[in-house]
């Protein structure tokens, strides 16, 4: 696609991409590239960075080499460019995913001059064969996308990016344009120095994304909070970031079973599944993608309405770039992060195996993140200041700290006490130990070092150790205290801290919420974590209803719902069939069969008593055994012997029967006649079946054995027949 001489850049923009005007400073950047100058572009996500190299690549003679970190990103960009052209060869990518024949086609198009843009990963550039080939190609310029990957101080450092300058020298000199959405002044200088472009023209756009709402929430019951938020924003696209692959898988599965169209994405998945999940999100077959930071770099989806961080990121650059994927069309973008200091401590532990230099960088980045999370000032002001930009408004009216200011109180004396205690123990102990001393917690560690004998011991005993840990964190944010990560997290008083001790002045502390509780959902199932008591009045009413339904259906009451299920109903107050499915021991089948009258009764009771129930049910959890249950059902359908099934699952027979009981009790019908028929004759089966049908007052195995005779029947016989009975009569 050649440009005729004399055609202006706006006309070329319309001809090549169909846009009628440039955004921000795009035109100046493109003109600078056209003039053959080195160019550094700092432009937030959604500002239109890609066009800054795509249009000049179309217009200049030769091929632009675009160095990009992600294979998926390359494919998306190449597909997008080809959509604007009648010639597929106009853009190609070169990476490890290409077959030999595909690579041959790429090289033919490059040598023929068809290709205006070649996307390549830095790893591919280092291959001698590729370097040798590219020497034959006329290169218009080099574009380095996601240039923050060059800097060790950046949030996504990649060592191979630091070799780019050497490779350019080998392939052949040409102007460079480096582009990034996030860079502090320190990172910017590091990028320019490494690329040998300190004299480049620098173009900075404002980092302020006025449409984004920023909020930090205490990480308490985060999974339930996320489900509640998504259901309140039904049909909207969103991204949830987790730090570990395991959490991505767990959270995605939990969202799915709670009726949310979600998919996982992380680097440990095979590339086909990863690409399919990404495409499903882009095509809106899925509303939510749950991902590690492997997802999102360069993803061009303008209508992402929320970005949730289940885990706080390791740096503010990472946070800014990931939140920046919300609201790229200028519309609504909610950025919600769940924070607890324990997560920071975990990240610090991971650092201890790294080199001291890496630890030092990581420590500083984490401290900035903690400072942001615990700050009471406007989130927008804090972020923009971090990136070297001043925000002059007193209230942005679009962050939690501006809309709901945190309570503050005078903390001068508390800071002084903390600093005195750190010095009293010769700066050789961690934050937890300091907090124990001040709060008067005479535990074994404090006694071992005889710190219960210090004058400062118990001086702050009117407040718990957790409070003093929060004061210590705020003293660290104020730079009064330094935490030596490479030295096991020992605390040291800084020069500023010594000056404060010499001349204490007013210092306002933030009153923190109780945000160090574990997310209960991580470790507890749907019927656990009960913090309130069962509603006894409702329980009696539910039992009466169960008795009425059992008589109507001529079934024992326990076949309808077992007692633990009724107790959970009297705790959770389910008022819909969907909520009923979250009750212990109630699956989809049983909820649909018997749930209607129960939820109607509970709804009427809740309305009559004016009960304030939790809006969000205890989340239906993904038990690790869910896959086991499915495979047991499949094996029974294939009429495998129970002994073989137990053996294949590394269970004993009693454990397997317990699994089958749980499956049947939750409403799934199973036919184990093929097994029972080989174990008992018809008369013995009939005796046990009739007992449960006519005589049993409960599902108790002990009562059944006492009635039927332990000499005649084994516990296993009765358990198997009870499974048959409940499955046939109740399900």
Describe the protein in words.
This protein is an alpha/beta fold. The chain folds into five domains: 9-204, P-loop containing nucleotide triphosphate hydrolases (Rossmann fold, 3-Layer(aba) Sandwich), CATH 3.40.50.300; 212-403, P-loop containing nucleotide triphosphate hydrolases (Rossmann fold); 412-506, Winged helix-like DNA-binding domain superfamily/Winged helix DNA-binding domain (Arc Repressor Mutant, subunit A), CATH 1.10.10; 524-609, Orthogonal Bundle (DNA polymerase, domain 1); 626-730, ATP-dependent DNA helicase RecQ (Arc Repressor Mutant, subunit A, Orthogonal Bundle), CATH 1.10.10.1390. It has 34 helices and 17 strands. It has a seven-stranded parallel β-sheet with strand order 3-4-2-5-6-1-7, with helices on both faces. A six-stranded parallel β-sheet has the order 8-13-12-9-11-10, with helices on both faces. Strand 15 (481-484) and strand 16 (490-493) form a beta hairpin. It is globular. The termini are far apart.
- Helix percent reads 40-55%
Overall CATH class of the largest domain: Alpha Beta
Mean pLDDT across all residues, rounded? 84
Number of helices in the DSSP assignment: 34
> How would a textbook summarize the main sheet?
7 strands, parallel
Distance between the termini: 68 Å
For the largest sheet, list the strands in their spatial order. 3-4-2-5-6-1-7
CATH topology of the largest domain: Rossmann fold
The parts where pLDDT drops under 50 for at least 5 residues are 1-5, 515-532
Q: Could you give the count of β-strands? A: 17
Radius of gyration in whole Å, from Cα?
Answer: 32 Å
The number of domains is 5
């Amino acid at each position: 696609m050649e440009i005729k001489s004399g055609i202006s850049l706006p006309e070329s923009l319309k001809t090549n991409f169909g846009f009628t005007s440039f955004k921000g400073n795009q035109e100046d950047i493109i003109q600078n590239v056209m003039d053959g100058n080195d160019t550094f572009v700092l432009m937030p996500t959604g500002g239109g960075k890609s066009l800054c190299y795509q249009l000049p690549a179309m217009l200049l003679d030769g091929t632009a080499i675009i160095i990009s970190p992600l294979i998926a990103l390359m494919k998306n960009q190449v597909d997008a460019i080809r959509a604007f052209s009648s010639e597929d060869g106009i853009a190609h990518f070169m990476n490890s995913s290409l077959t030999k024949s595909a690579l041959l086609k790429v090289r033919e198009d490059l040598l023929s001059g068809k290709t205006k843009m070649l996307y390549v990963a830095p790893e591919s550039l280092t291959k001698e064969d590729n370097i040798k080939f590219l020497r034959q190609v006329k290169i218009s310029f080099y574009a380095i996308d996601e240039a923050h990957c060059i800097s060790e101080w950046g949030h996504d450092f990649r060592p191979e990016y630091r070799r780019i300058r050497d490779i350019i020298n080998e392939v052949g000199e040409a102007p460079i344009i480096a582009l990034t959405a996030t860079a502090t002044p320190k990172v910017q200088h590091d990028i320019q120095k490494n690329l040998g472009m300190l004299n480049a023209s620098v173009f900075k756009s404002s980092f302020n994304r006025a449409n984004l709402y920023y909020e930090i929430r205490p990480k308490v019951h985060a999974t339930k909070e996320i489900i509640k938020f998504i259901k309140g924003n039904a049909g909207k696209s969103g991204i949830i970031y987790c730090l570990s692959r395991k959490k991505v898988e767990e959270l995605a599965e939990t969202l799915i079973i709670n009726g949310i169209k979600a998919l996982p994405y992380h680097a440990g998945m095979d590339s086909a599944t990863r690409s399919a999940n990404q495409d499903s999100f882009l095509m809106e077959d899925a509303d939510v993608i749950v991902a590690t930071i492997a997802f999102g770099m360069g993803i061009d989806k303008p209508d992402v309405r929320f970005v949730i961080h289940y885990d706080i990121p390791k740096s503010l650059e990472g946070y800014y770039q990931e939140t920046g994927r919300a609201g790229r069309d200028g519309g609504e973008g909610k950025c919600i992060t769940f924070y607890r200091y324990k997560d920071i401590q975990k990240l610090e532990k991971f650092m201890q195996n790294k080199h001291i230099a890496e630890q030092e960088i990581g420590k500083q980045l984490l401290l900035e993140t903690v400072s942001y999370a615990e700050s009471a000032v406007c989130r927008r002001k804090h972020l923009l200041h971090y990136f070297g930009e001043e925000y002059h408004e007193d209230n942005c009216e679009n962050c939690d700290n501006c809309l709901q200011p945190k309570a503050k109180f005078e903390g001068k004396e508390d800071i002084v006490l903390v600093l005195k205690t750190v010095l009293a123990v010769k700066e050789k102990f961690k934050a937890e130990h300091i907090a124990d001393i001040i709060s008067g917690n005479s535990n074994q560690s404090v006694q071992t070092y005889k710190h219960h004998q210090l004058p400062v011991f118990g001086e702050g005993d009117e407040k718990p150790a957790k409070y003093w840990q929060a004061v210590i964190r705020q003293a660290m944010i104020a730079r009064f205290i330094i935490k030596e990560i490479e030295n096991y997290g020992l605390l040291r008083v800084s020069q500023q801290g010594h000056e404060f001790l010499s001349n204490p002045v007013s210092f306002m502390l933030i009153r923190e919420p109780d945000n160090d509780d574990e997310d209960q959902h991580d470790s507890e199932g749907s019927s656990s974590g009960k913090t309130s008591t069962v509603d006894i009045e409702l329980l009696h009413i539910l039992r009466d209803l169960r008795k009425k339904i059992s008589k109507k259906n001529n079934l024992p009451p326990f076949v309808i719902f077992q007692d633990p299920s009724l107790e959970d109903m009297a705790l959770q107050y389910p008022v819909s069939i969907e909520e009923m499915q979250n009750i212990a021991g109630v699956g989809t089948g049983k909820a649909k069969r018997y749930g209607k009258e129960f939820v109607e009764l509970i709804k009427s009771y809740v309305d009559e008593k004016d009960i304030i129930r939790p809006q969000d049910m205890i989340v239906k959890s993904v038990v690790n055994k869910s896959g086991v249950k499915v495979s047991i059902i499949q094996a029974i359908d294939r009429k495998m012997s129970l002994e073989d099934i137990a053996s294949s699952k590394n269970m004993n027979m009693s454990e397997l029967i317990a699994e089958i009981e749980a499956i049947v009790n939750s409403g799934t019908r199973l036919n184990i006649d093929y097994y029972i028929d080989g174990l008992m004759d018809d008369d013995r089966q009939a005796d046990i079946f009739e007992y449960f049908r006519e005589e049993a007052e409960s599902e108790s195995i002990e009562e059944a054995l006492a009635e039927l005779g332990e000499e005649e029947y084994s516990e296993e016989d009765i358990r198997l027949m009870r499974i048959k009975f409940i499955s046939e009569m109740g399900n």
